Amino acid sequence: MSSTTPEKRSADEKRSESISEDVATSQPEIGEAVSRRHIMRKLDIHLLPFVSLLYLLSFLDRANIGNARVAGMAADVGLVGLKYNVIAAVFFIPYALAEVPSNIALKLFRPSIWIPTIMLAWGLVMTLMCLCNTYEGLIIARVFLGLTEAGLFPGITYYISLWYPRSKQARRVAIFFSAATVAGAFGGLLAFGIEHMEGLGGLHGWQWIFCLEGILTVLVAVASYFYMHDYPETASFLTDAERIHVVNMLKEDSNSLATHYDRKFVWQAMLDYKTYVQVSIYIGLLIPVYAIALFTPTIVNLLGFTAAQAQLLTIPPFVVGCLFTILVGIYSDRYNLRGPFIVGGCLVALIGYIILYTQTKPGVAYFGAILAATGIYPTIAVDLAWAGGNAGGDVKRGVVIAMVIGIGNLGGICSSFIYIHPPRFFLGHGIIMGFLGLSIVMSLFAMWDYNRINKQKEKLCEKEGIDHSRRQEFSELGDHSPLFRYTL
Fold it and tell me: Where is this region: Disordered (predicted)?
């Protein structure tokens, strides 16, 4: 049993106990009056547009360095050699290190306090980045941007898992993550317009990119304090019957696994080899994603298009990636499968990079860039739903998600240094193909391993007569509970 004392219990545990008492005492008629489809739609309307907007701004702020480079930053600041690569890379060091502590803080504090606060912090950093006009200044700004942005992506991914059952998460994470592809498209369009502010207020056009996008983030962060909902138990947009229905649905989905904070759940996540299998899959996916975000404007520019054309031509790959991210997420949930969709997406992206590697005609190579984005972007959402859904218990799930995203984001350092031999970028394309192969191999292993463990648990339950009436006995075992089944 947990060693957590009454004084140390989290607010989440107390809320959970309170709502459980409500369920036990009131038990309103929940059936025809409360349709699960209606409740899911209600959750989607109140949660998904908002969190998608937050991530759109997050990805826009971290990736706009690529647009700024094409808009004249490299020439104005003297970014020769590997200087741009260093500026792109330093972001990922504090970003990776701060993600696990941030998700633990999200569990200890309310999401409506923690998420807007870190968002306000990075919005201020982004805004003030417009004052940077030296190489050293840009490095310092990117370090603080990585530190302050760290908690948003794993935090929102974890936040979604607290509202939806596992079989409904992939499409929601896909919709939320599709904001990254929209950010890529919107960033190119926005940068194209902002460039024309060159010289206004004594700032270069690329400095205005940082300034205006940072101010937008600050404004949305302030609004978030008043709009963001914390948990299903306290959601004001749900009726009492709907609230109880959602909580019961989540309890049933998790087999009543523990929701309170205890350090042992953190260790369960850190010492589980399956966490590192998911980390390796995610690294292989994220290196291509960041390479696309950071270098697509440069790659397109060097295919023979002008800088202005390159800003606009970055839009189609991200738009197509956005559409397929949502489509794949929907089908992944429909069939309750994760691994096959990751493998399939990697194979499509692999074809795109083979085209980029082998073709010299601008039109054909540009099609390869579109194909690469089409294949790789959908895999991120599916993999995060896979990693989070296969981690049992609230705290372990939060730590696993943060570790996968945090360690995986160290791959962003690799992404920053592999595109160094223009204009064909053989080294960069070749390394990315290798990492796509890593994700394919590790996804196949994970599917085999999860299936093997599920069969072992089924035999144990049959042998020992274990059924759902005994689930409280295993509430603190997380996904090691004999009643927990992994999604393939």
Answer: 1-27
d(CA 125, CA 367): 36
Residue 290, both tokens? 């960041």
- Tell me the helices (H) and strands (E) count for the chain, helix number first: 21, 0
Nearest to 341 by CA among 159, 153, 174, 185: 174
Write down the H helix ranges in 359-471.
Answer: 362-389, 394-409, 411-417, 426-464
At how many degrees (to 10) do helices 394-409 and 152-161 cross? 150
Query: Please, what are the averages of pLDDT over each run of 10 residues along the chain (488 residues)?
Result: 40 45 41 70 91 87 82 86 86 88 86 94 94 92 93 89 87 82 70 77 85 93 92 89 88 67 78 94 91 75 73 80 90 93 96 90 85 92 90 83 86 82 85 95 97 93 81 74 87
- Residue given tokens 């390394």 in the structure block: 431
Residues 215-226 as b or e (16 or more Cβ within 10 Å = b) = ebbbebbeebee
Q: Which domains does the chain have, with CATH numbers?
A: 33-480 (1.20.1250.20)
**Residue ranges of the alpha helices (H) in 33-168?**
36-68, 74-77, 83-90, 92-97, 99-108, 111-128, 135-149, 152-161
361/283 Cα distance (integer angstroms)? 30
> pTM (2 decimals)?
0.77
pLDDT of residue 84: 86
Rg (CA), the chain: 23
Which residue has 């960033």 as its token pair?
Answer: 187
List of residues 6+ apart from 77 with CB closer than 8 A:
83, 133, 134, 135, 138
What is the pLDDT at residue 116?
A: 95
